[in-house]
Amino acid sequence: MREGLQGPAPEERPHPTGRRNGQGIRIDPETEAEPDTRRTVLSALVKNEPGVLAKISGLVSRRQFNIESLTVGTTTNPETSRVTVVIEESEPGIRQVETQLAKLVNVISVRELGDDAVGRELVVLKVHGDEPDKVHAVTEMYGGTTLHAGRDTITIEITGDEQTVDDAVDAYQQFGVRELARTGQTALARGGEWTTYAEEERYERMQTQPETNDD
Amino acid sequence: MSEGQPPQRAADEAEPEPAAADRTDEESRSPVTTGAESVVRALERAGVEQLFGVQGGAIMPVYDALYDADLRHVTMAHEQGAAHAADAFGIVSGEPGVCLATSGPGATNLVTGIADASMDSDPMIALTGQVPSEMVGSDAFQETDTTGVTAPVTKENYFADSADSIGDTVGEAFALAGAGRQGPTLVDLPKDITTGPTETEPDEGRTPDTYNPPEAADESAVEEAAGVLARADKPVILAGGGVIKGEASAELYEFATEYGIPVVTTMPAIGAFPEDHDLALEMAGMHGTGYANMAITHCDVLFAVGTRFDDRLTGGVETFAPEAQVIHADIDAAEISKNIHADHPLLGDAGTVIEQVGEALAEERAADMAATGERFAEWREQCRGWKEDYPMDYVAPDDAPLKPQFVVEAVDEATADDTVVTTGVGQHQMWACQYWTYTQPRTWVSSHGLGTMGYGLPAAIGARVAADAVASKKQRADGEAVDDDQSVVCFDGDGSFLMTLQELAVAVRENLDITVFVLNNEGIGMVRQWQDGFFEGRRMASEYPWMPDFATLAEAFGARGFRMEGYDEVEETIEEALAYDGPSIVDAQIDPDENVYPMVPSGGANGQFVLAEEQL
């Protein structure tokens, strides 16, 4: 006959005083337990292959990352594309998006861009054509372009940072916005800074050995 | 490990095994003429000698090419069985297991096994047939978007688009499965591509140039981590599955014993450190030992190697090692601070990083005599005390019904140390963890992350094939007969066994020497345990009022069947079942009300493990 599991019951055991927060970070009981979220831009250089966008979007959706926008387009190198992801996450969340993206086999390089990154997005919107002069004035004010002016509707393009585009769309509301199409943000690092490290390496390579580059 | 190379078992390192291409005379082989032949040639070049699969329409060209190949194909009863067998093959041999299936239902039947391998980072490659390219997207007969379906559960997957490149794609998939953080890869093979003409011989499989897993950790990070360990008073090593995957058990042993640091393992790391060693605290987590969970809860430095901090290990993250600074070594940067924040991340291969930290600690020790192993003596004494306070035990009256823990211990006693244990998922799996003493890596084969019921029997088939393959390789390398008849036993539950028992037909057909112990409690015991504990004993759909007679069923399949009810039958039955040279099933009638303890209720604190239902 054996005796079964022995030992002090849960409440009779010593208890540690520390704890961690929901992100598994060891915390001082006096300090804030949960980190704030912040909005940031990640730029990923990826192989320009079929299915790469599906892999990236599938990754972010199944891991429930809070994605604000995701844009993609080819770069100077036809074999690569740049994916720009705007996310709003806590610091650990941002690092997770970055490292999870980086481990995809099709991803060459990923980097978080700083606050000073040059970012732009574009909106095409269609308003009622009752007051063409006023519409034109708003378009001028936001440096936009009139793409089409018909008897009933006027279609305008505005490009700018997110805030400018938001403001412009607000301004057009007075004419009645029938419909609009808006892209997500696309961005590059500011000035001489490289957006991703892989591009710097390639650029250097092309400068030193232009003849061997068959792109 | 070196980039692009599947990991080798430590035993093979002294004398590298020649590649398959060297063994057979490559010159004498006829050149490839079709995509399918190129696929098979790529497998041969990768050193594959056995595969697990099921025939079907879209994969037929590949099977046709296998007709002339010198590869052992184990025809499974169901594709899920093929995936689990390939998975287990990878765990036991260290080299990616290969499974094949046709398009549509064949491919989708693989998905559970692929997902299982993905959760446990097991090296595996799946090859699936696909409808001809021009019919893709037309909802053709037996069409499924296989790369779409499997993208979330594969490390990488490929849609083969030309007969000329198909062999290289398979080679890359194979190399990738075994490199860095291991995992399953898949190549979808449209029928027109496999039947298409090509004369291109596949190259040696290489990982893509964008895949560069870290080898050694950053030196300054290593020094910092070593400093933290040297200043610790209550350090614990938490070994994860990465220790086994990275063939780092020897380094772990050397490190832990050199500095006298207690070792806790995760479930996938069972066998990474000998459980009969004084420093071994065994498995932590939901059904881990009380002493492992006490050590985790009260340690001040946790040196975690190759673990992803699964919730079954951590319990509620708020209370996981709450006082500890965490040093986390992993080959996958995405695991760092994913679930538990790493104060000191070390990116690299498990064995290399352990050695690096060991060397840095040796320097620390030279500089500061206080940082010797003696320093942790008090802490070791504390851990030993917890072992005495919370011993693993169970109540076992002398009469029936049998206690499952007793059966596990009896089989352990009757078998050699290197016996491979596979399990299904449920209570029996936990008893097999808790009451078997594992002393060697790659002897514990189970479904950890996904928790796939039905894993045990097909895994035993894969494990048997792998054990034989490893022995035969060793024999070829050493040039002499190896007296190594490693046993494979499977512990299964009746509910788990019912899910894949058709694979018994395969075990009989291939005459595989495996012994299955069905711990039969006539129901899904783990669910029943939770219902009793958390759902007021409302046993909805967890009791099976009628069960087949597994002993007779085994005989119907052509296997040997045994039934075991009383303690007086145990020893003799086990002996007879193990002695049978072929598959045998022991239907062990166990106490249907036996529960698994200790237990940390889901999301609870590890230090608050309960020892009995009344503590819930």
UniProtKB/TrEMBL annotation, chain A:
<keyword id="KW-0028">Amino-acid biosynthesis</keyword>
<dbReference type="InterPro" id="IPR004789">
    <property type="entry name" value="Acetalactate_synth_ssu"/>
</dbReference>
<dbReference type="GO" id="GO:0009099">
    <property type="term" value="P:L-valine biosynthetic process"/>
</dbReference>
<dbReference type="InterPro" id="IPR039557">
    <property type="entry name" value="AHAS_ACT"/>
</dbReference>
<feature type="domain" description="ACT">
    <location>
        <begin position="41"/>
        <end position="118"/>
    </location>
</feature>
<comment type="similarity">
    <text>Belongs to the acetolactate synthase small subunit family.</text>
</comment>
<dbReference type="InterPro" id="IPR045865">
    <property type="entry name" value="ACT-like_dom_sf"/>
</dbReference>
<dbReference type="InterPro" id="IPR002912">
    <property type="entry name" value="ACT_dom"/>
</dbReference>
<dbReference type="GO" id="GO:0003984">
    <property type="term" value="F:acetolactate synthase activity"/>
</dbReference>
<protein>
    <submittedName>
        <fullName>Acetolactate synthase small subunit</fullName>
    </submittedName>
</protein>
<dbReference type="InterPro" id="IPR027271">
    <property type="entry name" value="Acetolactate_synth/TF_NikR_C"/>
</dbReference>
<dbReference type="Pfam" id="PF22629">
    <property type="entry name" value="ACT_AHAS_ss"/>
</dbReference>
<feature type="region of interest" description="Disordered">
    <location>
        <begin position="1"/>
        <end position="37"/>
    </location>
</feature>
<dbReference type="Pfam" id="PF10369">
    <property type="entry name" value="ALS_ss_C"/>
</dbReference>
<dbReference type="InterPro" id="IPR019455">
    <property type="entry name" value="Acetolactate_synth_ssu_C"/>
</dbReference>
<comment type="pathway">
    <text>Amino-acid biosynthesis; L-isoleucine biosynthesis; L-isoleucine from 2-oxobutanoate: step 1/4.</text>
</comment>
<dbReference type="GO" id="GO:0005829">
    <property type="term" value="C:cytosol"/>
</dbReference>
<keyword id="KW-0100">Branched-chain amino acid biosynthesis</keyword>
<comment type="pathway">
    <text>Amino-acid biosynthesis; L-valine biosynthesis; L-valine from pyruvate: step 1/4.</text>
</comment>
<dbReference type="GO" id="GO:0009097">
    <property type="term" value="P:isoleucine biosynthetic process"/>
</dbReference>
<dbReference type="InterPro" id="IPR054480">
    <property type="entry name" value="AHAS_small-like_ACT"/>
</dbReference>
<dbReference type="GO" id="GO:1990610">
    <property type="term" value="F:acetolactate synthase regulator activity"/>
</dbReference>
Automatic annotation (TrEMBL), chain B:
<keyword id="KW-0028">Amino-acid biosynthesis</keyword>
<dbReference type="InterPro" id="IPR011766">
    <property type="entry name" value="TPP_enzyme_TPP-bd"/>
</dbReference>
<comment type="similarity">
    <text>Belongs to the TPP enzyme family.</text>
</comment>
<dbReference type="Pfam" id="PF02775">
    <property type="entry name" value="TPP_enzyme_C"/>
</dbReference>
<keyword id="KW-0460">Magnesium</keyword>
<dbReference type="InterPro" id="IPR039368">
    <property type="entry name" value="AHAS_TPP"/>
</dbReference>
<feature type="region of interest" description="Disordered">
    <location>
        <begin position="1"/>
        <end position="36"/>
    </location>
</feature>
<dbReference type="Pfam" id="PF00205">
    <property type="entry name" value="TPP_enzyme_M"/>
</dbReference>
<feature type="domain" description="Thiamine pyrophosphate enzyme TPP-binding">
    <location>
        <begin position="424"/>
        <end position="587"/>
    </location>
</feature>
<keyword id="KW-0786">Thiamine pyrophosphate</keyword>
<dbReference type="GO" id="GO:0009099">
    <property type="term" value="P:L-valine biosynthetic process"/>
</dbReference>
<keyword id="KW-0479">Metal-binding</keyword>
<dbReference type="InterPro" id="IPR012001">
    <property type="entry name" value="Thiamin_PyroP_enz_TPP-bd_dom"/>
</dbReference>
<keyword id="KW-0100">Branched-chain amino acid biosynthesis</keyword>
<dbReference type="GO" id="GO:0005948">
    <property type="term" value="C:acetolactate synthase complex"/>
</dbReference>
<protein>
    <recommendedName>
        <fullName>Acetolactate synthase</fullName>
        <ecNumber>2.2.1.6</ecNumber>
    </recommendedName>
</protein>
<feature type="domain" description="Thiamine pyrophosphate enzyme N-terminal TPP-binding">
    <location>
        <begin position="34"/>
        <end position="147"/>
    </location>
</feature>
<dbReference type="InterPro" id="IPR012000">
    <property type="entry name" value="Thiamin_PyroP_enz_cen_dom"/>
</dbReference>
<dbReference type="GO" id="GO:0003984">
    <property type="term" value="F:acetolactate synthase activity"/>
</dbReference>
<dbReference type="InterPro" id="IPR029035">
    <property type="entry name" value="DHS-like_NAD/FAD-binding_dom"/>
</dbReference>
<feature type="domain" description="Thiamine pyrophosphate enzyme central">
    <location>
        <begin position="222"/>
        <end position="356"/>
    </location>
</feature>
<dbReference type="InterPro" id="IPR029061">
    <property type="entry name" value="THDP-binding"/>
</dbReference>
